[in-house]
């Protein structure tokens, strides 16, 4: 993570693959020496790479996510372990066991968290899995809600607000009803689909 909003770099140890990538970048981004980036963005990448290697930065980054996971775990919220380095994943099937996958448990939980606190999370379950060629939903084994923590934005107090919101929703979980999909775009339904409460 170069700690920037745009750009990055690709490191390859196979010269043939490197040559192919170098030729293709011109088609999609710009000359291989800058990849379509402005000079200021390339400078920010250089600084970001150096800063991202700092032990202090890594400790703070991973520590903040770990703190959120530990707070959620203390409230009894079913999280995926080990806790990740960029976010906490909540097991929506365990959180809302009374909802079938056709009632979109992870999407339901994401909506409940947003309604409670304004915290945006991401569904990683049946909605994200999409449909088979025959039109039936894919039914993944996991129904997760991802609480991704943007780097260098929030304080520990923000993590407390997120954990407290998840706990408030968890306390009333048995009353939560699922969702039905009322609009499904042709592509990327997890970004644009619309739902209503059952």
Describe the structure.
With 198 residues, the chain is mainly α. α3 runs parallel beside α7. The relative contact order is 0.12. The protein folds into two domains: 38 residues, no CATH class; 139 residues, Aspartate Aminotransferase, domain 1. The model has no long low-confidence stretch (mean pLDDT 94). The chain is globular. The protein is built from eight helices and five strands; from the N terminus they run αααβααβαβαβαβ. Strands 1-3-2 form a three-stranded antiparallel sheet.
Spatial strand sequence of the major β-sheet: 1-3-2
What fold name stands as the CATH topology of the largest domain?
Aspartate Aminotransferase, domain 1
What does the radius of gyration come to? 20 Å
Portion in helices: 40-55%
Number of helices: 8
Shape descriptor: globular
CATH class categorisation of the largest domain: Alpha Beta
The strand count comes to 5
Number of spatially distinct domains: 2
pLDDT < 50 runs, ≥5 residues: none
- The N- and C-terminal alpha carbons lie at a distance of 41 Å
CATH superfamily of the largest domain: Aspartate Aminotransferase, domain 1
CATH architecture assignment of the largest domain: Alpha-Beta Complex
Q: Tell me the fraction of residues in β-strands, as a range.
A: 5-15%
Structural class: mainly alpha
Mean pLDDT figure: 94
Q: Let me know the largest β-sheet.
A: 3 strands, antiparallel
Order of helices and strands: HHHEHHEHEHEHE
């Amino acid at each position: 993570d170069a700690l920037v909003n745009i750009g990055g770099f690709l490191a390859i140890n196979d010269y043939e693959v490197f040559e192919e990538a170098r030729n293709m970048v011109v088609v999609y981004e710009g000359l291989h020496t800058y990849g379509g980036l402005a000079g200021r963005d390339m400078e920010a990448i250089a600084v970001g790479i150096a800063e991202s290697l700092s032990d202090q930065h890594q400790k703070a980054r991973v520590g903040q996510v770990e703190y959120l996971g530990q707070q959620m775990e203390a409230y009894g919220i079913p999280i995926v372990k080990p806790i990740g380095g960029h976010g906490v994943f909540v097991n929506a099937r365990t959180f809302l066991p009374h909802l079938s996958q056709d009632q979109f448990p992870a999407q339901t939980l994401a909506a409940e968290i947003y309604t409670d606190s304004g915290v945006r999370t991401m569904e990683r379950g049946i909605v994200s899995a999409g449909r088979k060629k025959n039109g039936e939903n894919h039914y993944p084994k996991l129904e997760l809600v991802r609480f991704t923590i943007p780097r260098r934005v929030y304080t520990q107090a923000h993590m407390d607000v997120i954990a407290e919101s998840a706990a408030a929703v968890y306390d009333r979980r048995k009353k939560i009803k699922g969702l039905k999909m009322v609009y499904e775009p042709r592509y990327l339904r997890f970004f644009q689909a619309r739902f209503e409460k059952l």
